[in-house]
Amino acid sequence: MSESIQQYIPIAMQFLVASGFVITTIVASWLLGPKVKTLHKLDTFESGLQPVGNARMQFSIKYFLVATIFVLFDVEVIFFYPWAVNFREFIQEGFEGFGKMLLFMAPVLIGFFYVIKKGALEWD
Amino acid sequence: MLNLVFLIPLLPLTGFLILGSLNNRLPKTIVSFVGCGTVLGSFVIVLTLLSGTLSGTITSATISYFDWIYAGDLNLKMSFLIDPLSVLMMTIITGVGFLIHVYSAGYMHEDSGFVRYFAFLNLFVFSMLLLVMGSNYVVMFAGWEGVGLCSYLLIGFWFKKDAYNDAAQKAFVMNRIGDLGFLLGMILIFTTFGSLDYDDVFKNATSVLTENSGVAIAITLLLFIGATGKSAQIPLYTWLPDAMAGPTPVSALIHAATMVTAGIYMVVRSNILYSLAPFTLDVILAIGLATALFAASMGLFQNDIKKVLAYSTVSQLGYMFFALGLGAFSAGMFHVTTHAFFKALLFLGAGSVIHALHHEQDIRNMGGLSKKLPITFLTFLTATLAIAGIPPFAGFFSKDEILAAAYERSPVLWALGLAGALMTTFYMFRLLFVTFFGTFRGTDEQKHHLHESPLVMTIPLMVLALLSIIGGFIGVPEVLGGSNFLKNFLSSVIIPYGEKHEHLSHSTEWILMTTSTLAVIATIIMAYVIFVVKKSVPAEDNKISGLQKLIYNKYYVDEIYDTLFSKPVTFLSKIFHSVVESKIVDATVNAVGKAVSASSKILRLSQSGNISYYLYVMVIGIILILFINNIL
Amino acid sequence: MSKLKENFNDKKMTAVIILSCLGIVSMLADIFSYKKALWYIVLAGVAGAIVANLNEKSNAIIYDMLLTDNYAIWFSTLILALVLLWFMVSKDQYESGVYNSSDNYALILFATVGALILTSFSDLTMMFLGIEILSIPLFILAGSNKKDVSSNEASLKYFLAGAFASGILLFGITFIYGSTGTFKLDKIADWANAAGSNLPALFYTGILLVMVGLAFKVSAAPFHFWTPDVYQGSPMFVTAFMATIVKGAAFAGFFRLFYTSFTSASGSWALILSILIAATILTGNIIAVYQSSVKRMLAYSSIAQAGYILLTVLLSNQEAKYALLLYIASYGVSTITAFTVLYHVEKIKGTDTFESFTSLSQTHPLLSVVMTIAMLSLAGIPPTIGFFAKFYLFSSVLKSNTSYLWLIMVSVAGSLVSVYYYFRVIIAMYGQHEPIISSEKKQIPAFYNVLLLLLVCVIIILGMMPDVLMSIDNL
User: CA-CA distance, C26 to C34, in Å (whole number)?
Assistant: First the structure.
């Protein structure tokens, strides 16, 4: 029991040092830094442009939908990379590797088809 | 032959289910056909079994249908035992039962509860068959309870009268006391033998139990307590006279011919156990004889036609137990058989009289009925001769066999038995003479309406009369040139007991027979002189005194029981009701209920609906779990 | 390709494959407009999956991830049977037009795939995947009544709490991996056996965190708070699905993990679990007493029932498997029956309060009888299956370890309390007589009458002959 706790002493020290560093720097900058309060400083940062209207406005839900679908297919495409890298070896063993990828592709394509048919990508 | 056995109890059960579920939607004709037909069907199948047992093709067959109860060491099968003893009982139940069903179709025709009546009667036949057919004690017990239930339902059949309901309850409670004994006996058998099957128990009886050992006596005594309840023996007999509240055919079937003999059947069935406990047999002997005499004396001064017959039944049952106590098991069964015929006949005859007089039961208001009701009179006379034991009527042979067995043991027992028989003769002839002879003492309206019962009622009377005449020939003793057929028939089931006593010589038997017959005839003449020649009529209730009053009031046994048992129990019950029940039990239960609903009221507030609060509690839970785990 | 073919010829995972394809087929029903035939297709597919599952090659190891032993096969069969039942009873809800049946069915089928994985995993990662495949469709299903605010609320609450619990579960799995160096259940068991009584804190903390994560899924106290809100807000049959199939699968997984891997380390978690059980039984039963909505009452009752079922995990022996199978079957069938009746009552009367059951026996005698039997079974009263399940469970706990007597006493006390609120429904149906409003005489379709009668028969027949489930060899 005591032995296993001793094992964690380095971690605890690391934890202390890390949090200590963060706290120290924040407190130090707050204490040491000059305090200037102007109107511009409290403004919303909008890529250097003049801010227009309230930042808390309503978005169309479509925005999230498209974003989610993008991330989804993005992740699925990543699975192609390791397969593509090893394709040369797969082809030597026949068509099994190719078949497996087709099997993977099929649900992805069905999903894509579903998304289109459901009208998820139509903006209006 | 044996593959139809399951139909024997099933047919009456079907009848019950049909009648019970359709109730008043059927015309009475169909009801009678279903009610009687199902029992007739069973009777026909029983007859095939009877011929099988007579010809020897069936000696003892156990037929299992399914596992009924299978728990731990206890394995009970729903199975039937077909052997001479059960076939004999089945024949009586379905045969006499069928006749009484037919009779009932006439007797109960005007009753509004006609369908209910037949449904119960069918259920009774089913339960009774279950009782005698079962091949283990539990099936027997199921039937035992079933007949108790039917008896209760039928005694209180006219439930609108409080007195009848009380009678039904009395019967039920008395029977429950006995049943408890039976149940304890069964449990003791199970703990001793590890089984409740007749086969296992009887086969191992001699090796497991030693003669007159405590266990053997305990088992047999407990079972006998059950028998005293069901077969109305001292001290549990008081329900049977009250049970006459039910319709008369019910009294004939249940409280004379079949159910009340269940106790005797049970003792005979367990004769192997009983022969290992001579002490119990002595107890049975004493109780049987006491009941026979006691009940017969009470019959002497009763004025209700059915009450007389009821005490007579108690007395005759005492006779049967007397026989069993002597170890004469087959004589007991013989008397069961003949008694079933003539006592059923007596009740049905009484029913016919009551029917003719529109529910008049007091014999002081009868008289001179022999001309108006000739068939009833003749059949009633036959039965009376049979019960008195005039040769060659059925009762003579069975009674003689019991008396002979008593003489073998001791002449004193014989004399006491004979005294009982003479009392029986006296009150039966008193009943016969007062009812059928002399002049009619009822109202003019009753006189005007006097009529013989319809054929549907008289035919069963005639059949039973025939049986009362010839029924005795199944057990003609050797001394009269017979071979005691019944004894041989039952020999495979009943082990011989009491061989140590010497058999009576033929000359002694002749002397005994002649003496008893002559004494009976003398008693008949005495009754004739008193009630026909002198034309005396039993006195009014308020004019009797002394011993007669004591007897007329049944020795005040009911009142004694009431003071000894009922009143203290009622008193205790009141205390428990007012103090323990309401102040302690109810209060505790209510407090628990209130505590639960109060805590529910508070705990449900923990469900605030705020998700961050939920997560917060979860985290606290996790921390607690880890904490508890580390400190323990 | 050859290996794939081999798998298929070996009859491995066929039920999972069938259900996945069925899910896709169901998803496309809207697009190719065969929605009307969908119910029949799904029913046939699930029935096919049951057959395939029964023919599954026994004790096959699939990619070192799944193990189709008898336990897996029979629990999968039970779950599939419940799913089949669910599709039958829920037909009316998805024909009403409020829900998109093709999407909903697809989600249910995918969730079922997760349930099947939970019965057969042999690797912690598979267990996690199974739980997630099971849960994620349910987050959506809980909110499938889009226009109902409480349904949306249920969805969000379920999602947040579920994500939280998944985090804890993963945390626990990491700890276990950290101390044992493996995800394989049997290897973990070997490791724990070798370690004997000298277990590192990392390992048993891991066990406890996994236990917490799973306790959340089966809604054991104090991780049950999401249950009443989610059950009440979700559409009726989604709640029924969560209360029976999801819970059953979660228990199958819970038991499988603890029975296979952690029995030798039971010293470190048995006490905590028994406290959780006692707390769950008491909380569920006591709060249920004061509810006015029958649906919410059933939610609390499902919490209480979870407490009883957790006894099997505590027991973790061969007999407990039978107790678990019997209890899930009993609880599943009875609960689905109760929810079906409740659905129809709510449809007729408009609410799901106890008052809506008032004098139901006069207008709908069949519904009342069915509800009565379901309540009797849940309360554990003979001759229903619920009685036998409870009896067998309690007796097997006492048989193996008498030191849990206190726990059984708590359970029995809880059952007594439960009789109160289950009988409230029965009393409402039969006790009071109120004048019947003509609109209440709306009868339910004949198809449901037959189905409900069938369910009642199952409850009673299984109650009389529980041997059917007890006679499975080597569960």
Answer: 9
Can you give the length of chain B in residues?
Answer: 632
Is C222 in Cβ contact with B601 (below 8 Å)?
A: no
Q: Measure in Å the smallest separation between the Cα of B627 and chain C Cα atoms.
A: 10
Give the chain B residue nearest C225 (alpha carbons): B614
In a domain, A16, yes or no: yes
Question: In terms of domains, do A29 and A66 share one?
Answer: no
User: Mean pLDDT across chain C, nearest whole number?
Assistant: 90
Q: In the complex, which subunits touch A with 3 or more CB pairs below 8 angstroms?
A: C
Residue B29 CA, distance from chain mean position: 29
Is residue A52 assigned to a domain?
A: no
Does the pLDDT of residue C414 top 90, yes or no?
yes
Mean of the pLDDT values across residues B65-83?
80
Distance from CA of B625 to the nearest CA of C (A): 7
Is A8 part of the contact surface with chain C (CB cutoff 8 Å)?
no
Same domain as A62, residue A16: no
CB contact under 8 A, C157 and B614: yes
For A30, the domain range is 1-34
State whether A112 and A77 are in the same domain: yes
Cα B16 off chain centre by:
20
The structural domain count of chain A equals 2
Cα–Cα distances (Å) from B385 to B14, B120, B245, B378, B480, in that order, read: 39, 32, 26, 11, 19
Tell me whether residue A75 is in a domain. yes
- C156, C168, C283: residue with CB nearest B603: C283
Q: Are residues A64 and A124 in the same domain?
A: yes
Q: Is A117 on the interface with C (CB under 8 A)?
A: yes
Q: Is A118 on the interface with C (CB under 8 A)?
A: yes
Is residue A28 domain-resident? yes
Place of tokens 């006609």: B114
Rounded distance between C-alpha atoms, residue B219 and residue B223, angstroms: 6
User: C341 and C370 in contact (C-beta within 8 Å)?
Assistant: yes
Q: How confident is the model at residue B288 (pLDDT cuts 50, 70, 90)?
A: very high
Q: Count the Cβ atoms, other than its own, within 10 Å of residue C457.
A: 11
